[in-house]
Amino acid sequence: MHEKRIEIRWRDQDGYAHVNQAVYQTYVEEAVDDWLRGVLGIEEGEVWHYVAARFAIDYRSELRLSDRIALARCRPERIGTSSVTVRTDVHAPDGRLVAEAESVLVARDPETGSSRPLAEGERAALLAYPAASTPDSSRSTASTSPG
Predict the structure, then answer these.
(1) Residue 13, exposed/middle/buried by CB under 10 A (0-12, 13-18, 19+)?
(2) What pTM, to 2 d.p., does this model score?
(3) Which stretches within the chain are classed as H helix?
(4) Which CATH architecture has domain 2-128?
(5) What is the torsion angle, in degrees rounded to the nearest 10, for the CA atoms of residue 139, residue 141, residue 146 and residue 147?
(6) For the segment 51-80, what is each residue's pLDDT rounded down to a tens digit?
């Protein structure tokens, strides 16, 4: 599981003095981007050819500016032909679960703008990460599985 510490910014809060619902998507995106860049070896500033196809979130508890940081923990849930589904849990520093999210990212052909199959190297790197599964597998891969 990949974890990213995210500083809660003053602008993140709304009139209720808690982190606004729209900001959670940014927190999740920061964590997933950080994870995917690391897994696929994408350098900072380098364009990566994936687009968001779906985002769903369930809010569980308030996160406030006084919490100071959010801990976003993500892991792949499913590796498809051209997509990866990522589960992200956002926690307060005290361990409280504040949100659960699911993101679907689709590999994109930069020439056509259409979806493309995952390259062999991408698929191997994603499947080597713990908890990833393919549509035809009913169990997760182990962290020691060959990639």
Answers:
(1) middle
(2) 0.84
(3) 21-40, 120-128
(4) Roll (3.10)
(5) 110
(6) 999 999 999 999 999 999 999 999 999 999
Give phi and psi for 58, each to the nearest 5: -120, 125
SS3 content of the chain, % helix, strand, coil (to 5): 25, 35, 40
In the chain, where the domains are located: 2-128
Residues in the chain: 147
Pairing state between β 69-79 and 50-59: unpaired
Edge-to-edge strand ranges of the sheet holding 69-79: 2-7, 69-79, 83-91, 97-107, 50-59
What pLDDT band is residue 143 in, cutting at 50, 70 and 90?
A: very low
Q: CA nearest 102: which of 34, 55, 53, 50?
A: 55
CA 86 to chain centre: 5
